[in-house]
Each structure stands twice: as structure tokens, then as C-alpha cells.
Amino acid sequence: MSFMEKRAFHKQLAELIREIDCQKDPERLKLEPLVVASPRFREKGQAASLGCLQGSIDHLRVLIQYLLFDVEALRRERDVLRRAIADTAEPPTEQEHD
Questions:
Q1: Is residue 96 part of a domain?
Q2: Counting beta carbons within 10 angstroms of the beta carbon of residue 16, is it exposed (0 to 12), middle (13 to 18) or buried (19 or more)?
Q3: Which of 59, 8, 75 is nearest to 16 (CA)?
Q4: Count of domains for the chain
Q5: What's the whole-number mean pLDDT along residues 38-64?
Q6: SS3 call for 98
Q7: Alpha-carbon distance 10 to 17, whole Å?
Q8: How large is the average pLDDT for residues 56-67?
Q9: pTM for the whole thing?
Q10: DSSP type of residue 96
Q11: CA separation for the pair 29, 25 (Å, rounded)
Q12: Each residue's pLDDT tens digit, 70-92
């Protein structure tokens, strides 16, 4: 929900609360808990979703760091193996034959 949408929602909610305040007591008592509880419930749900999302992002960051570490280790191993292959594949020089 964008800032403007949230602002409009709270404005409409405030208008609704004012209208309920003007109602007779029995009707007001039935409606007021519904209106007051709704934004709290929504905000708690959003906070829980945000917390879950934050945890998932943190976990993803850790996984990416492990993958980067693994890629670097594989690159080092590849370079070592390439050097080893290059060293064994070189033809012997004339001095080595003597």
C-alpha cells in the first residue's frame, strides 16, 4: 500500500469513526469494535508479513554469500588444475633429455 493510499484509507477511517460517534449508543456499540479492530489487524498482518519477508531476504543474502564463496573456490581450483595440466603437457626441453 503506497503512502497516498494509506493516507486516504486513514482519512476514510477517521470519517467513519466520526459518523459512528454520532450514532445512537446501541448501534454504535455494535459497529465501533469492528472499525477500530480492522486497522490494527491489518497493521499486525502487514508487520508479520514484513518480518517474514525480512527474514527471507536475510536468508537469501547468506545463501548468495555461500554461493560466491563457492564460485571463488572453484575458480582457484580450476586455475590450479589448468596450471598442473599445462605443466604436464609441455614438451621436455633439450636440456632435460641429457
A1: no
A2: middle
A3: 8
A4: 1
A5: 78
A6: coil
A7: 10
A8: 90
A9: 0.44
A10: H
A11: 6
A12: 999 999 999 999 999 999 887 66
CA 30 to chain centre: 39
For the segment 45-63, the average pLDDT, to the nearest whole number, is: 82
In a domain, 77, yes or no: yes
Query: Average pLDDT, stretch 56-71?
Result: 92
pLDDT, tens digit (0-9, with 9 covering 90-100), for 10-41: 777 777 777 766 766 676 667 666 666 666 65
Identify the CA nearest to 34 among candidates 58, 56, 17.
Answer: 17
Residues across the chain: 98
Q: How far apart are CA 16 and CA 37, in angstroms?
A: 13
In a domain, 97, yes or no: no
Q: In which domain, by residue range, is 38 found?
A: 3-89
Q: How far apart are the first and last CA of the chain?
A: 82
Confirm whether 63 is domain-assigned. Answer: yes
- Residue where the block lists cell 536475510: 58
C-alpha cell read off for 77: 581450483
Look-up: residue for cell 491489518?
A: 42
Please give the DSSP secondary-structure letter assigned to residue 90.
S
